[in-house]
Amino acid sequence: MTLSDTTTSTGAVHDERTVRALLGALDAALDADRRERLAQDTVAVAADPAALDSRFPSAGRVYGRLPLPDRALPDRAGWTVEDAVRAALLLAVAPDRTVTETAARYAQGDAAERRGVLLSLPYLPLGGAAASLTDDALRSNDTRLIIAALGPYARAHLDQHRWRHAVLKCLFTEIPLSVVAGLHERKDVELARMAQAFADERRAAGRPVPADLVLLVPDRGRDR
């Protein structure tokens, strides 16, 4: 059995095909020994979520941190093998424990572990129950977490008010708006107004305006 034999459950943002694409890319990136070890690790987690306590933090050390060689994934945060292993471990958790265990891994994790959790969210059967994790990441000043938080899960589960402020934070922190899932579908007049006010403040202070502003305010977004 390969990792891509794992299937999704109701409540995930991504469909089964996308989950399989992620796990298939991970399967292809691992050598035979690591594939066998991960198969054993996922079985252990499925039997007892407490197995995550040692396996989740050690994912990078055990499996590596190389970029995941797959450009077909819908997330634009630059997945690594380490990230994908953490997603596979969380996918192995029994569905009725997924919300609790996902929250625990985020709360107890360092920045790399939290990034892995955030990237995993749209693949897990969570519904909107993990939106508080996205909110927490967006309150941080760690651009790695902000980028990971603005993927398909935020597109699906952040209300418009919170989502607008998340996009504006990208402008403040100079994160490219290309990482924001659903930007063109969700941007609206109010976001354009907020972005224009931000640009006006920057110009009044003699500071440059991010080039990405044109994606939100196409008529007036360019620096003048």
From TrEMBL:
The lineage's top-level taxon is Bacteria
Question: What protein is this chain from?
Answer: EboA domain-containing protein
The species this protein was found in: Streptomyces yanii
Q: Give the organism's phylogenetic lineage.
A: Bacteria, Bacillati, Actinomycetota, Actinomycetes, Kitasatosporales
